[in-house]
Amino acid sequence: MTSLSSGPAAASSAPALSRIRVGSAPDSWGVWFPDDPQQVPWRRFLDEVAQSGYEWIELGPYGYLPTDPAVLLEETARRGLKVSAGTVFTGLHHGEAVWEKTWAHVADNASLAQAMGASHLVVIPSFWRDDKTGEVLEPDTLTPEQWRNLTTLTERLGREVRERYGLRIVVHPHADTHIDSEENVVRFLDGTDSEQVSLCLDTGHYAYCGGDSVKLIETYGSRIGYLHLKQVDPEILAGVRAEGTPFGPAVARGVMCEPPTGVPALGPVLEAAQKLDVDLFAIVEQDMYPCEADAPLPIAQRTRAFLRSCGA
Asked: Where's the Xylose isomerase-like TIM barrel domain (predicted)?
């Protein structure tokens, strides 16, 4: 693997990452919500993600893309697109009281993902502070009982999603949630059954929270089931950390940046993932909510070209 500093000119010497399947997601088009006037229409997203050279997409927030599988299959197929995963948000640390509500949300997403031929369901823990307003919703640390709820119910979720929908859950460490830092990610992994629960390693969120993606892959490689490729701007990150800025406003300030201008370097991450010798999706997610409608396409095209220069 050539270093990122070598740039696209070194593309011919970069080894093919044969086990890595690259894609993108609505998130890279500024889509965070099922319906929001600041977001691009779903047809434009599908047109532009295909135009950027990607073959794989995620469903994004449930309801943004059509939820009728027949409609969505037709729309994706005629653009040469396939679906890798759906995404759900959960607050399982609250215990059994939230299970039924959680499962209703999961079932809708998992059913659509299954119908689209996806193999994964990305599970994001609930935020402890609001990503728009910054309002603190609950303590930023869990009690021992809440950790037990989180681990046992996530295992149950993994088991039932597999049995009912044939999907594997991959839990996504995320800023402003309780699974964020290296300490909390390791605690979560050590507390869950590897047969039921894998990790969606988001390189940007993990760096945002101080983690080292390559180290995590090398240490917990058997638990890495999925990747989100993302970078953070270290200067903006230092500022938002110092100020205690919530994640949503931090994104609006540009904390998540276009590769290869930020950290972590994605070449070494992809190389470490390839060494695991398993098939992995690596889905580009550059948080940009809100953004101008014309901004995502050229960024996506440049990012896809950059990833090709890394062998992906």
From this structure: 46-309
**What CATH architecture is 20-309?**
Alpha-Beta Barrel (3.20)
Q: Which two tokens stand for residue 57?
A: 């997409």
Pairing of strands 280-284, 224-229: parallel
pLDDT of residue 7: 43
Longest pairwise C-alpha distance within the chain: 56
- pLDDT value at position 15? 60
**CB neighbours (10 Å) of residue 106?**
25
Take residue 281 and report the two structure tokens written for it.
């999706």
What is the tens place of the pLDDT at every residue in 92-112? 999 999 999 999 999 999 999
Instruction: Decide if 38 contacts 290 (C-beta within 8 A).
Output: yes
The set of residues, in sequence order, having a beta carbon less than 8 Å from that of 52 and lying 6+ positions away, is: 24, 297, 300, 301, 303, 304
Full-model pTM = 0.94
pLDDT band at 197 (very low <50, low <70, confident <90, very high): very high
Please check the confidence at residue 10 and state whether its pLDDT lies above 60: no
The Cα–Cα gap between 238 and 101 comes to: 37
Element (H, E) at 282: strand 280-284
Torsion of CA 165, 29, 184, 62, to 10 degrees: -30
What is the C-alpha separation between 158 and 189, in angstroms, rounded? Answer: 13
Residue 297, token pair as written in the block: 């396409």
Return the CA Rg of the chain.
18
